[in-house]
Write a structure and sequence with these properties.
By secondary structure, the chain is mainly alpha-helical. Helix content is about 75%, strand content about 0%. It has one domain: Amino acid/polyamine transporter I (Up-down Bundle), CATH 1.20.1740.10. The structure holds phenylalanine.
């Protein structure tokens, strides 16, 4: 097999990079607003089930393709397919991934830009004791100022570029090994602090008491899409990271750590955000701005509001950065393999992100009433931002996930997949293969069809 030229220097570096990719704005910003829009409890249960039974197996499959096939997303799936005598058309997995790696960052950097802006707001002391209405007004005034928003998101993009341009060792590895443990220590500290001062009852009720009548077919797709997004699965980010993993790293325990850590962070974030939603009569279904209105109120009510709020937004920024670098690494790895100089590849990709990012940024001001695909029922009333999010998260990631499951479950010759996944002959490997062959493609496929094919 053509091995990747780059390799992680330790298993800790591999796991930190993968956890860094998974834990991001998806856990805080996206999880809270999508759970809010879909009624809470029942959505959260579907989300957790999907994370462990659909997405974790596919994450392992992604690692297997990456490590076995080696190289970027246009190389690894083709190598794995060829080795088992399958057509090279499996490279479609890679093209889907590259498409997703263009679409997802376009809205991701916008939200990361908001986070950057809020570090400054928090440090200025403006959040101390802030009311729900004032927090709402503050966020609206940021959105209404496209110049400011664009400056922040491009500053974030520039930092992402700097890390990716520095390379796997000097960039990705170093940043993740410092930021990911810091993030976790600080989150545990903040969680203990928040639990000791806040009232959690309404939030626990909303997040964990299912009201199945609230769950729609669209809600199930939203939960599955959120699972793929939050764990960074379906577009080859984890495949690319898997290609940098030496044969000696055990994959199943790495997958367990990543999925458990990611799910815990999402639930903790929900427990921090929803008490405020209910305590202040805010609407849980208010959309992408939810976190930016609720968190300032929650943090602002604390004793050391300015300090804690500033730390919190800095942590969110760390989380966003370690995810964004994994998104950018997908096309950059492919280009490096084809002879590009790394920093030039990263610069070109950043240019694409900056351009597409403008459409998403302006979706909250100049283009707020522009609904480019309004003639298609599924996209009625959706702005550029909404469309990028929906297509990337709810269509491309699940579709990529189905193909990844199929290549490893059905495409690879018997025994090869379980061996490459370090399972040996145990029952866990049998269960994993079964999930990849049947439950994953059938469940994810059915949900996609029900939602996207007009009745
Ligand atoms: N998992 C990241 C988050 O939760 C987003 C992401 C999606 C990163 C897909 C890489 C690939 O914020």
């Amino acid at each position: 097999m053509t091995g990747a030229t780059e390799q992680w220097s330790s298993r800790a570096a591999f796991v930190a990079a993968a956890v860094g990719s998974a834990v991001g704005l998806g856990n805080f910003w996206r999880f809270s607003y999508v759970a809010g829009e879909n009624g809470g409890g029942a959505f959260v249960i579907v989300y957790i089930l999907a994370a462990f039974f659909l997405i974790a197996p596919i994450l392992l499959a992604e690692f297997v393709i990456g490590r076995r096939g080696g190289g970027g997303v246009l190389t690894a799936p083709a190598n794995v397919a060829r080795e088992s005598g399958r057509p090279s058309a499996w490279v479609a997995i890679g093209w889907l991934g590259i498409l997703a790696a263009a679409i997802i960052p376009a809205f991701y950097i916008v939200v990361a830009g908001w986070v950057l802006a809020y570090i400054g707001v928090a440090a200025s002391g403006a959040l101390a004791g802030i009311s729900g209405e004032a927090a709402d007004a503050l966020f609206s005034s940021l959105l209404a100022d496209p110049v400011q928003v664009l400056i922040y998101q491009n500053a974030f993009l520039a930092m992402t570029f700097a890390v990716v341009a520095a390379g796997v060792h000097a960039g990705l590895e170093r940043v993740n090994l410092i930021l990911v443990p810091t993030l976790f220590l600080a989150l545990v500290g903040l969680g203990i602090y928040a639990a000791s001062v806040g009232d959690q009852a309404a939030a626990i009720d909303f997040l964990f008491r299912p009201d199945w009548s609230e769950l729609t077919a669209q809600g199930v797709l939203a939960a599955i899409g959120q699972g793929f997004f939050s764990i960074s699965v379906g577009m080859g980010a984890m495949m690319t990271f898997g290609a940098y993993a030496p044969r000696s790293f055990p994959l199943p325990s790495s997958v367990a750590m990543i999925v458990v850590a990611d799910t815990l962070v999402a639930l903790l974030a929900g427990l921090a955000i929803f008490p405020i939603v209910f305590g202040h009569g805010l609407d849980p279904a208010s959309g992408p701005g939810l976190m930016f209105v609720t968190l300032p109120v929650a943090l602002g009510a604390l004793d050391a509001a300015t300090l804690v709020a500033t730390i919190f937004f800095v942590l969110l920024f760390f989380a966003a950065l370690t995810s964004a670098i994994s998104l950018m690494e997908v096309p950059v790895a492919v280009m490096c393999e084809r002879g590009f100089v790394r920093w030039q590849a990263a610069a070109l990709v950043s240019g694409v992100y900056a351009g597409l990012g403008i459409l998403c940024a302006l979706s909250f001001s100049t283009f707020a009433n522009v609904h480019p695909l309004g003639f298609i029922p599924t996209f009625e009333g959706r702005t550029w931002f909404d469309i990028f999010d929906f297509i990337g998260t709810n269509i491309l990631l699940p579709l990529g996930g189905i193909l990844i499951a199929a290549l490893v479950g059905w495409g690879m010759v018997a025994g090869l997949a379980t061996r490459e996944a370090d399972f040996g002959d145990g029952w866990l490997g049998v269960l994993w293969l079964w999930l990849l062959r049947t439950l994953c493609p059938v469940a994810v496929g059915a949900v996609l069809i029900v939602n996207l094919v007009p009745a």
